[in-house]
Design a protein that fits this description.
The chain has about 350 residues and is an alpha/beta fold. Helix content is about 30%, strand content about 25%. The chain has helices at about 40-45, 65-70, 90-105, 125-140, 185-195, 210-220, 220-230, 240-245, 255-260, 280-285, 345-355, and strands at about 5-10, 60-65, 80-85, 110-115, 120, 145-150, 160-165, 175-180, 195-205, 265-270, 275, 295-305, 310-320, 325-330, 335-340.
Length: about 350
């Protein structure tokens, strides 16, 4: 059954997916790739809302450079449901821009904020957890996030420390004690052993008015720019005002900018629904079905005396001989080869290419 008419889905789709280079590029970012099935990750994100939040109340936020690629992915979505960022400014600005649109439409509107590039296997459980989160927001007007039960000492994720709930919260809902950034391996093990840390999914539920009030308290300069933009909504001068003021915003994540410093209560729901951020090639290898050699082969490949490898090579033969635990990604214009346990560092290649202005490969 669909939710009440004051619930809005906000899908953040402006990332570059740098750890998925060379397949993910500026003109073909990770969220439009069919990485783990027939549909793109963006299309899967929208489809898992079916029966929960209707398409007319689903909004996709992305930047001007990527919108030309993203919009054709969702031909059934109205043009007005795409919210354009003139330039990327990280998640605090992205969420704030969406919030002023929702507040203009519906002053009491509740936002379900979702990254466009995550994998969720159990859609029914996911939808039920979102419903619970909305109930918590309606009752407490609080900031709500979803934590993922950790299965390993992962250093690529942020963490949420939780404490036992009061009697006024449903089962599986906890009070948040602290947010922790991506830890070292040793710290991640301590988090896992403690039993009171979950992975930070980056999924949030709150009223538009609430998160805007938090931005006003925690990031007043950013909120001041958003106010100028909000004043121009639905006016002819909106594109110019948006471009002028949005470019002045200092990029910062919603975690750094609000969640880690707010004095408001934050509640965490337990998100045990088969989640992965599919944030890097080694994570994709981890969740993929392996062959007899404990490897993943996509496309034209030959492997001899090679174990525990991820080889991606559609349209071109790639042969691997006598090598284990490696990643090979073959595209028409670039090839990546590295140890699987260095896949998290692929973004350093992107940074080097940017520094050297080799933009044809980005």
């Amino acid at each position: 059954m669909p939710l009440k008419p004051n619930i809005y889905a906000i899908i953040m789709a402006g990332g570059m997916g740098t750890r998925f280079w060379p397949l993910s590029r500026r003109r073909r970012p990770k969220q439009v790739l069919a990485i783990n099935g027939p549909n793109s990750m963006l299309q899967d994100t929208v489809s898992r809302l079916d029966g929960l939040i209707p398409l007319e109340r689903t909004y996709v936020v992305s930047n001007a450079q990527q919108m030309r690629i993203i919009a054709p992915q969702l031909p059934e979505m109205d043009e007005a449901n795409f919210i354009l960022e003139p330039v990327p400014r990280n998640t605090a600005a992205c969420i704030g821009l969406a919030a002023i649109h929702v507040r203009r439409i519906d002053p009491g509107g509740i936002m379900v904020v979702l990254p466009a590039d995550h994998l969720i296997k159990n859609i029914t459980t996911f939808q039920n957890i979102v419903r619970t989160g909305i109930n918590v927001v309606e009752k407490h007007d609080a900031l709500v996030t979803i934590g993922i039960p950790p299965t390993r000492p992962e250093t690529a994720y942020g963490y949420i420390q939780f404490e036992e709930p009061g009697d006024d919260l449903p089962d599986g809902v906890y009070r948040v004690k602290t947010f922790a950034e991506k830890p070292t391996t040793e710290t991640a093990r301590l988090f896992l052993d403690s039993g009171d840390f979950f992975w930070n999914s980056g999924i949030f539920i709150w009223r538009a008015s609430k998160i805007l009030a938090e931005l006003d308290d925690c990031l007043p300069e950013l909120y001041a720019q958003l106010q100028k933009i909000e004043e121009a909504l639905e006016k002819d001068e909106y594109p110019g005002v948006l471009s002028n003021y949005y470019k002045r915003i200092r990029p910062i994540s919603i975690d750094y900018g609000v969640m880690e410093i707010t004095n408001s209560p934050i509640y965490m729901l337990t998100g045990d629904f088969g989640w992965s951020d599919v944030g890097s090639w080694d994570e994709l290898f981890r969740i993929s079905v392996k062959g007899q050699d404990d490897s993943v082969h996509i496309g034209e490949t030959v492997a001899i005396d090679a174990q525990h490898n991820y080889i991606y090579s559609p349209g071109k033969l790639t042969a691997v001989l006598g090598m284990d635990n490696i990643l090979v990604v073959n595209t028409p214009s670039a090839t990546l080869i590295c140890p699987l346990d260095r896949a998290q560092d692929v973004k350093e290649i992107v940074e080097k290419l940017q520094k050297e202005k080799r933009t044809r490969y980005l």
